[in-house]
Predict the structure.
Amino acid sequence: MGTALVYHEDMTATRLLWDDPECEIECPERLTAALDGLRQRGLEERCLCLSACEASEEELGLVHSPEYIALVQKTQTLDKEELHALSKQYNAVYFHPDTFHCARLAAGAALQLVDAVLTGAVHNGLALVRPPGHHSQRAAANGFCVFNNVALAAKHAKQKYGLQRILIVDWDVHHGQGIQYIFNDDPSVLYFSWHRYEHGSFWPFLPESDADAVGQGQGQGFTVNLPWNQAYPESHCEDWRVESHSSFDPELVLVSAGFDSAIGDPEGQMQATPECFAHLTQLLQVLAGGRICAVLEGGYHLESLAQSVCMMVQTLLGDPTPPLLGLMVPCQSALESIQSVQTAQTPYWTSLQQNVAPVLSSSTHSPEERSLRLLGESPTCAVAEDSLSPLLDQLCLRPAPPICTAVASTVPGAALCLPPGVLHQEGSVLREETEAWARLHKSRFQDEDLATLGKILCLLDGIMDGQIRNAIATTTALATAATLDVLIQRCLARRAQRVLCVALGQLDRPLDLADDGRILWLNIRGKDAAIQSMFHFSTPLPQTTGGFLSLILGLVLPLAYGFQPDMVLMALGPAHGLQNAQAALLAAMLRSPVGGRILAVVEEESIRLLARSLAQALHGETPPSLGPFSKATPEEIQALMFLKARLEARWKLLQVAAPPP
Ligand code: Q9C
Ligand code: ZN
């Protein structure tokens, strides 16, 4: 399984033939710059490269009227003056004799990508296309867009594979009004767009781009617009959580991947760094079993575009995300926008009514069940599989990245059912040092714990030195707390700037734990939330899926992003109570803010059950299902509200969660 890259050189053929400052930015070099970037960084060769084929007329008809398709077809034979005259009938559009061919390739590429992902040939992928699509409508070109590539992909996924819930995330700086119109009354396609709006004074200047447009009829609540009203917010990282959609539980995620919100872009004039796109991608990867199809939309600064595309592809391939730099403080205008979305959407989403955090999907099927079902149910979906298989063979020949997930266990490796690609750590060095640590904590380690401690310290060093991406270690139940103490001290001794400790179960805060801002200690245990300081606090483990998701999305993730740790210690101590899927989701979510550098320490009684899914999550696979969605209890909400109210003065990203009703 891997990442598909769909492309065809012919899509560089269409270009502006006359003077028009508005349209000249949509140029062929956009594609070549993006592709060169991928080649230079060795990313292209790690992808399954598919050559785009034209969408058929019938396929275009899934979205567009026959008259409009015929009109675009006719442009092939028009001369320059006629092309110019026709172009002027639309808003921000130019036609070229090759437009029809390119636009059919662009649409075809999006459909091929859906085929590759839904037949299971790849996990995810990106279609690098021109012209873009999200402004195009049933019978109109608009904003450089001719055929609506992403809308066609969604219709295709519904029609050919019978999908019932598709999430479209549109992170282009412009509102994709074309997609919104096409699915306005369709509850099977949730369209989420954030875009620059400036209270209506940013192109395309439409009132229906505002937060109060929620869809119509059956589709109410399935259009979600998040308009930005201030061009230069202090920070662009406030928005990570808005991605998470309440119990929609998509079967496929389509991304209208425009990069005109990236720093340097002449059209968007925003400041998102390339790393932001890695984080956005990684956050989406916990949805839909990781089935993400991204299709290029805007992005007009060639270097910025290339870097952002590389960040996205790197993340799709499973590489860890580089850290987000900058002040983690949401600006007032962004908070107001988020509030207005919440107000507009609350009637339609139970999780918003609970007013803690909009909750991401709790998949009701595991990824495995899903792909089987998809393959089994559709009579037509065997098509792409055959044609892809020779290419798939090549994928297996590629070497895995040198660093990966490692495991050191008191339990025999064979008992853990580790997924392929995960290293079982056998040896242990650091003898003297281990003993020195153990002497310091004399009463807390048994002799037989020493070998384990040595291995764990090796893992920690491996992560901090960049030789290992992340790791799982087991300890005896009694030694878990002491091991965690040693690990914290060793992180500090090795000059870690900030260490985030997420401790579950009966693990007491180390007595001598410094409160100097280098350690953020969160204990998830017990009955009540409690705060010792802005860096040391605890909260109960919710028993509902809604409560658990609110804890992760509304508390743990904003804290982790705000803290910007260089190391995460995730400790599952005695009576931690975490289920498989919960542990996997927690680990998967914690990867983003720390560039993957997580050491998970698990007391040995529960490791046999947890090891496999925990290792998979750390390795970058989508976590398994949390089970059916259940509403958070009033007590669970109360605990989270208590913490949020007291902590948000220091941890500003907590402000993104809605205020109490
Ligand atoms: N001076 C896409 O990004 N120009 N289309 C607006 C502002 C049109 C953008 C005028 C922008 C179209 C796919
Ligand atoms: Zn755009």
About this structure: The domain at 3-346+377-394 is CATH 3.40.800.20 (Arginase; Chain A). Confidence is low (pLDDT under 50) at residues 233-245, 357-401.
